[in-house]
UniProtKB/TrEMBL annotation:
<dbReference type="InterPro" id="IPR009091">
    <property type="entry name" value="RCC1/BLIP-II"/>
</dbReference>
<dbReference type="InterPro" id="IPR000408">
    <property type="entry name" value="Reg_chr_condens"/>
</dbReference>
<keyword id="KW-0677">Repeat</keyword>
<feature type="repeat" description="RCC1">
    <location>
        <begin position="123"/>
        <end position="173"/>
    </location>
</feature>
<protein>
    <submittedName>
        <fullName>RCC1 and BTB domain-containing protein</fullName>
    </submittedName>
</protein>
<feature type="repeat" description="RCC1">
    <location>
        <begin position="56"/>
        <end position="122"/>
    </location>
</feature>
<dbReference type="Pfam" id="PF00415">
    <property type="entry name" value="RCC1"/>
</dbReference>
<dbReference type="InterPro" id="IPR051210">
    <property type="entry name" value="Ub_ligase/GEF_domain"/>
</dbReference>
Amino acid sequence: MVYTFSWGNETKLGHQTEQTDLELFPLLGALDNIPVVQSAAGYCYLLALACQPSGMSVYFVGCGLGGKLGHGTRTEEEVSSTPCCIRGIPPGRDIIEQFQTLNIQLVVVAAGAWHAAIVGKDGRVCTWGWGRYGCLGHGNEDCESAPKVVKALSNVKVVYVATWDYTTFVVSN
């Protein structure tokens, strides 16, 4: 079970309100009976790496400004007040099509202020969100509203990723 507390601006706590919660509160909704193995918090959003029968999935809640929720939209209006699974273009599916298409088995998720990243079991890294200062690693400053493989790391087996404001750090084996 994932619990959240503190400042609830932009519904980032997943409680369907914007109130401040001073006590622990369970994150309800899509994650109710799904084991979460890791969570990561960025500015006004939360990502959770969860076990599914078909493999690991990434769930999100909060503000999607810049595409940081990874669901294909970049606008601030795209706010999720309950946990949702990152999905591909066809709406309503509880799978991460980008990761399945790329055959990536998720092992680590990171949430920076404005962008996010994952590491796959094979060492590949995907990033999405605001690309300011090149923080997504794609050789430009473009925003990516859905996860995209970082080609610059194709010859590196990454085991861990961390993100911050406009930076991404990876650790190789």
